[in-house]
Amino acid sequence: MSKFSSQITTLFIVVALVCAFVPVFSVEEAEAKSLWNTCLVKITPKCALDIIGVVFENGTISDPCCNDLVKEGKVCHDTLIKYIADKPMLIAHETEYLKKSDDLWNHCVSISKSA
Length: 115
Prior knowledge:
With 115 residues, the chain is mostly helical. Helix content is 74%, strand content 0%. It has helices at residues 2-21, 29-38, 45-56, 63-72, 74-85, 94-114. Helix 4 crosses helix 6 (94-114). It starts with a helix and ends with a helix. The model is unreliable at 7-12 and 20-27 (pLDDT under 50). This is Prolamin-like domain. InterPro entries: Prolamin-like (IPR008502). Residues 1-20 form the signal peptide. Keywords: Signal.
């Protein structure tokens, strides 16, 4: 029961982070729902947090999360990272975040190919 409870808590944290970082004015409601339905549901909440940590901080990512990221797809990954990086408080370092995002993608592709 506590494992289920912690998974629900983690899911709410991911949703809150995405809502906090995604500028309301740049995402149409239908587009946000489409991104949620097609992108975010493909990865676990923990992996989503790890991905955000790698790109926007100095986090690390596990091989299973890399595999989830690759399954999510490059378009989903790029779109979600771009939305977060466009946040006014982050935009000054957008180029750095997008490079880290590309580096993460390339790393995860190489991990998934070797698996």
